[in-house]
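[job 4471] stage=fold_predict status=RUNNING
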Amino acid sequence: MNLKIQFKVLLVVGLLLTIPLIAMQFTDEVEWSPSDFMFMGLLLSVTGFTGGLIFKKVNSYSHRVFFLLISIIIFLMIWAELAVGIFGSQFAGN
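[job 4471] inference complete, writing structure tokens
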């Protein structure tokens, strides 16, 4: 993957992670630990790099949309499980 694309993905991930960081300064409703930031940064980075790889390797528009949707669905399912535990695994949030 292109270094420029990797930089953009990491920049967007950093900007997205500032949202809960700023929210923690103004409310007690958001309580993220350093490990929460680490896991979400990893999850966002992997999803972003996967999207970049899909755009680079998949030529067919319909296949590209399909793989991007699958990637986004997997991201949302992992995020929901870590946040509130929709599947009841040992990694479930409170």
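[job 4471] summary: The chain has a mean pLDDT of 91.
[job 4471] exit 0
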